[in-house]
Amino acid sequence: MPKLKVDGIEVEVPAGATVLQACEAAGKEIPRFCYHERLSIAGNCRMCLVEVKPGPPKPQASCALPAADNQEVFTTTPMVKHAREGIMEFLLINHPLDCPICDQGGECDLQDQSIAYGRGQSRFQENKRAVTEKYMGPIVKTVMTRCIQCTRCVRFAEEVSGVEEIGAIYRGENMQITSYLEEAVTSELSGNVVDLCPVGALTSKPYAFEARPWELKKTLTIDVMDAVGTNIRLDSRGRQVLRAVPRINEDVNEEWATDKTRHAVDGLVRRRLDRPYVRRDGKLVPASWDEAFAAIADVARTAGDSVAAVAGDIVDCETMFAAKALLKSMGSSLLEGRQTGMTYDTSSLAAVNFNTTIAGVERADAILLVGTNLRWEASLVNTRVRKAIKRGAKVWAIGPETELTYKVEWLGDDLAVLGDLPEAVTEAFGKAERPAVIVGGAALKGAQGATLELAKSLNLVRDGWNGYNVVHFSAARMGGLMLGYAQKDGISALHGAKLAFFLGADEADFAKFTGYKVYIGHHGDKGAAAADVVLPGASYAEKSGTYVNLEGRVQRGNRAVFPPGDAREDWTILRALSERLGNVLPFDTIEELRAAMALDCPDLAQEGLVTFAWNPPSLGTEAQGVLAGYPIKDFYLTNAICRASPTMQRCSAELVHGETFAEAAE
């Protein structure tokens, strides 16, 4: 480990570290534009210049210079100061004076560093160059005259998202960053280039001219658009969420977020349920809370214990627990969260968990994907698989061929392959130190037993490593399974219930439910249309909630804004309804609810990764059937919030269905 001095401070850094990292370890701030911790080193902005001895008598780029023993680094000498001022002058030669109308204003690295390290005045009097705007799709807005050619977006597209559709054309002063043929970038992670861009060249198109950062209230919470559990910050003004941006969590999402996570928030203010409704003469009509509760109580008196609850994909654990407690007081345990009809054995939670952990997949050296389109089901797990490949991992897949952004050897779409894997696969897994199998929803129904058999035959579970993984794509799935939202026969066991509660469940086949249907949710989507009573609830942005991601990590989100109109937090609706039904639930605050939930399921008591004991059930090892497709048909329209979002509708139309949209000048 090299030892060196930075401004007289001795530091020791890991082998392979750069001088820039050594300076940071010594507590020194080094300005940079092109350098980013998660991208390859480009060394093209030269803003990170420092003086190094021994070495040539000139400043050197610290981001590309390896740290070595007995180096002396100086970050504040007159030579360094003069060099940085010169570099900043060059960067600003063609940069327009756009700050008053630039969406990056207040969050701009160029603003901050020009004030901290620039000259304070300009000596440039020639005309500035102008660059035509590029089209990058419905997510990213471009003002390429502002671009300083740091190439962060190019490196992100190539190295992280794996969709190499952003690059540079021309040379020297004429260099321009553009998308391939100036068409929409097809990556579901394209919005991350907005965060990466250190100037205002790439900004958020849906958020353009909406607000300044100092106007916004910032709330830390958890994303519910998939089961990864992305840590996000919701920025709101008044009663509206204006944007969602990722927070750094190395174990979950690093610092990335999908486009759905970022831009579905404009669906939070559209198609909202803001008052109760009761179906009369075949039509839903507005009603008071008393009238809605009275209608439910009338049915409950005759329903007895024939009561069921169906949990949706984006509901929180508190709501599911309150519904479970209400059903228990009525003598029922008909709970189900797999609303689309999926069935699989849930007697062992380890057998339906992502046991390797999201971060752990990076260390796998042989990976088999079974029935999963990982790019759509868990985009940020897909980026980890890409990192594993860079470390030398090989990937095979069973299922219909699709573009996963990396090289995959497809073994066909017949599940029978699980019982007779090619010799090359078994040989590679036999030699692997950290083998992993990732099973998707498409394979769970007919091949759960066969995939569990692979855990034995491929030796996936060993000291310090569990390579058996199941991918869920619903934020509520693992929490629901921990709370018992699973029937042996799946949702079909609930079809005959005389009274059914749908907790934000919009994907169920409502025609098969013969009883009275009560929908508790926040959007006027499929569930509300089929219900006999609609009770307006709160979205994930309007309540504090507990969520468990696909690896069993318990996380808690906070309320950013209040629900609209008469809508209330879901658990408070169930608590108020319990009084009307004569079975008062024993909690009046969310703290009391969480204490009761912790008694029922101790693993939900506090945040952190839950480790499930490996005791898989013994199921049949024969896998039959051909995988005709994957569960997610449209990445951008997977839940009620997305379907209400104009941005997600545009993304679906353009990126999934291939529709073309004319720009203003066309």
Automatic annotation (TrEMBL):
It catalyses: a quinone + NADH + 5 H(+)(in) = a quinol + NAD(+) + 4 H(+)(out). Residues 79-118 form the 4Fe-4S His(Cys)3-ligated-type domain. Its EC number is 7.1.1.-. Residues 2-79 form the 2Fe-2S ferredoxin-type domain. Residues 216-272 form the 4Fe-4S Mo/W bis-MGD-type domain. SMART domains: NADH-G_4Fe-4S_3. The keyword Translocase applies. It comes from the Bacteria. Binds 1 [2Fe-2S] cluster per subunit. One of its GO terms (biological process) is ATP synthesis coupled electron transport. Its cofactor is [2Fe-2S] cluster; [4Fe-4S] cluster. Belongs to the complex I 75 kDa subunit family. This is NADH-quinone oxidoreductase. It comes from Sphingomonas dokdonensis. The gene is nqo3.
